[in-house]
Design a protein that fits this description.
The structure is a homodimer of 336-residue chains. Chain A is an alpha+beta fold and 336 residues long. Helices cover 36% and strands 22% of the residues of chain A. The first copy, chain A, has two domains: 141 residues, 2-Layer Sandwich (60s Ribosomal Protein L30, Chain: A), CATH 3.30.1330.10; 164 residues, Phosphoribosyl-aminoimidazole Synthetase, Chain A, domain 2, CATH 3.90.650. A seven-stranded mixed beta sheet of chain A has the order 8-10-7-11-9-12-13, sandwiched between helices. Chain A has a four-stranded mixed beta sheet with strand order 3-6-4-5, with helices on one face. Chain A has a two-stranded antiparallel ribbon with strand order 1-2. In chain A, helix 3 packs parallel to helix 4. The longest helix of chain A has 17 residues. Chains A, B: GO terms for molecular function: thiamine-phosphate kinase activity.
């Protein structure tokens, strides 16, 4: 590795030309650390100081499946994969303490893309004060995959599980629903030379941006835990599907409020029509807002109450909407 | 997902047919847990009880680069990727407390392969008492990738870093050197209808088995830490390359003992010749034996002393062999 390469001067370099050591020193060295990182990247493992039990989760993104280069920049991908992982920690009532990042890519991959990825990872990691403590690099014959593991802790002292909901609680969402799905739909249609009317163009651009780089308020997880949340999950596969997971784990029924859902869908209706808008709110994934149950009156400021929990009854656990069991969509990586 | 599929009765099923939930309930449910796992797979994150700081490392294997299906079974791949990660923990003086496993594979992948992978993961995880606490599944257009993150603790109370060696220490290896590389060489040659003479066939088979499924004694890491090891690393990229990492981090020179290296190479010489045998010992990766420095007389029983450390001098840090700086090989994922 030449000094010029190490300094990032050769912007046309590929990962194969940089080599493993070059990639590590050139690209990953820019990431910040914290005092809790007793040993950071560069030894056999990282060593992280802890206070109490450790949260651990992992989430990967695969090019062509979880993102398309035509739609998402390297920065977008890095930011999104970190958000996905930190949202899982938030959904337990936790915050991040460390990230491990694995990049699998062909040697022909421009180093500039990996720099962008790192910048995206760093932007979200820095925003939430979470250091990158380690990682791995592997070459492939063409596939590109970014896998992140996030470690965390529970500042509120308790973990909020999917199984903790009780009948008669309010069901609330910490932020938006459907924006990521609406953005994806816009991207799909725009391939066919379609773009929303001028009146909706600004909103559509925001949905697209949210799809490519979601930025949920991850601090709401700790607040929800402190407010006494019964059960919590982040909306990664859609309201109905993720709500169904709370319903299953807590063995109860979750009744969605038809009027509130309609209100949330109204944002998308001018562009996507009534059915499309409802699909976004009910089935749209990758939103990463938090969905939680609370004792009546304990819903934190800024959350939107979208329903109530009830005894499962003879029909068994599930999500109900308009008097029927909702089965709506959501994303299965293996289409099952 | 049908009940028959969940029970694993349909052995011809693909991952796409099983679906994400089916894969999780069918394949990953067989893995064991421990008391320290406060929350295991199935919620947003795992929650792990800890005692002291947490070790964290991650290592991935990619089909076609890190293994070939012609040579390695799914069980081999699962076992090897866990060994690689646990060896990194051992190289710090640590032991495993939890594993996160990510599988990226096409929907057309036979479920039977994923079951084999899980069996391999489970065999090593169980042998060392480490639970699988979480993971992720993603589909691909064909690429197959297994990524593992290992968390650990330090039973000896201290982390052994690469930077802790001092001049005048003994350099020792906890187990074999070169067997994985010798096995790989046999596999490569056997594609050309070659196989060792009958007198060496049994040894050659053992090297091949070690290459496909290395089984280093991972308990030696804690013992080395307790014996006062100065610096430690696991031999994943070859003795010269990994020894060079200790030399660099500790800013000293590592002199290999020519006679001991020759003795270690003698095992491979009848099959691979003098040069090939030396290459295995000096540059052979994926062995995952531990390489450590110790104060004179503190080398643990069963370890092989392969050299000594010395002041770096004007030539700077490095590994020396036969009076010259060794530059020997080792594996760079990006060939740099």
């Amino acid at each position: 590795m030449s000094a010029a390469t190490a300094g990032g001067a050769e912007d046309s370099a590929t990962l194969g030309e940089l080599g493993e050591a070059g990639i590590l020193s050139d690209i990953f060295a820019s990431l910040r650390t914290t005092e809790a990182v007793l040993v950071g990247p560069g030894d056999d493992t990282a060593l992280l100081a802890t206070s109490g039990p450790v949260l651990a989760t992992t989430d990967a993104m695969v090019r062509g499946r979880d993102w398309l280069d035509e739609w998402s920049s390297a920065e977008d991908v890095g930011a999104k994969v970190v958000v996905q992982n930190l949202a899982d920690l938030a959904a337990m009532g936790g915050t991040g303490t460390g990230l491990l990042v694995t990049l699998v890519a062909p040697g022909s991959m421009p180093a500039q893309w990996a720099r962008g990825l790192t910048a995206g990872i760093g932007s979200v990691a820095d925003a939430w004060g979470v250091p990158v403590i380690g990682g791995d690099l592997s070459s492939s014959d063409g596939a590109v995959m970014v896998s992140v593991t996030a470690l965390g802790e529970l500042p509120g002292g308790r973990a909020v599980l999917r199984s903790g909901a009780a009948p008669g609680q309010e069901v609330a969402v910490s932020g938006s629903l459907g924006r990521s799905a609406a953005g994806l739909e816009i991207l799909r249609r725009s391939d066919a030379d379609w773009w929303p009317e001028p009146a909706s163009a600004e909103a559509a651009s925001r949905w697209v941006a949210y799809h490519c780089r979601p930025d949920p308020d991850l601090s709401q997880g700790v607040l929800a835990a402190q407010a006494g949340a019964g059960a919590m999950i982040d909306v990664s596969d859609g309201l109905v599907r993720d709500g169904g997971r709370i319903a299953s784990a807590s063995k109860l029924r979750l009744d969605l409020d038809e009027e509130v859902i309609a209100d949330l869908a109204a944002e998308f209706e001018p562009v996507l029509g009534g059915r499309g808008a409802l699909d976004c709110v009910l089935s749209g994934g990758e939103e990463h807002s938090l969905l939680a149950t609370f004792p009546t009156g304990a819903v934190p400021d800024g959350w939107t109450v979208v329903g109530r929990t009830a005894e499962a009854g003879v029909a068994g656990p599930g999500v109900w909407w308009r008097g029927e069991r909702a089965t709506g969509g959501g994303w299965d990586h293996f289409g099952g």
